[in-house]
Amino acid sequence: MSLQSSRAKGISCILDTDVVIDFLRRREYARQLLEKWAGEGLLAISTLTQLEVYRGMKSGEEKATNFFLDGLISVVVDVPVARRAGALLGQLRSRGVTVSTGDAIIAATSLQVNAPLVTNNVRHYPFTAVKVVQGLET
Fold it and tell me: What structural domains does the chain harbor?
């Protein structure tokens, strides 16, 4: 999938896992945030976010979680995303900076679809090429 074709399909942003979890936990700021970004286009997540959400899902939350996640665009962690994440990690390592592989994959997903990354964990994404948007209003 090229950067141009992804943008043409109308993806407004990539949601980080923390924002998705806050929405599922019914935090008002997250509802307002998703409503705002949905007005700009389609909401998307990395398939890694699917894993992270399910890892923390509590008993009785499966139906609502499935319903919500099924309404988002899930961008597959494929070879181009994996290679881009590896390159991002290598660039940071050369500067002595370490971040998690998961955060690099989510950042690479954002770059792959040419859409901003909406997160409350801005410091997890020190990648200069990634447009990171603070989710929680401060």
Answer: 3-134 (3.40.50.1010)
